């Protein structure tokens, strides 16, 4: 379980909205002030992430809670969103490199465009499927509450 501290910013019955500071690794080295990646990440990255979580725990605004996300959920979602589109791209490139020359489209650009289109459609469909799937392994949970307010 990956655990992070977050602050409760809203409570609506069983639903709790929490806000957690986003941590980056760009402040870890000595060149962070002069590094272009560090400057861009500080300028463009959001400072906090908000999540709405269903919980039976009694919390109030201002409480600091521990939010956990199961590793299996992160690994499964990563595999679906990264490995599946990569596999779709490779397979569709092989299929299109065989089919398109018979249609007179012998340039590799056509294979690339067709494969990228199929991969984009596959990625969007996979993303929609994951969002519609009601699985607890992808959901963050509140593990404990500490009243520091």
From TrEMBL:
Transmembrane helix is among the record's keywords: yes
Keyword Membrane: yes
Keyword set, alphabetical order: Membrane, Transmembrane, Transmembrane helix
InterPro entries for this protein: RseC, SigmaE_reg_RseC_MucC
Transmembrane segments: 80-103, 109-130
Protein name in the entry: SoxR reducing system RseC family protein
Organism whose genome encodes this protein: Alteromonas ponticola
Phylogenetic classification of the source organism: Bacteria, Pseudomonadati, Pseudomonadota, Gammaproteobacteria, Alteromonadales
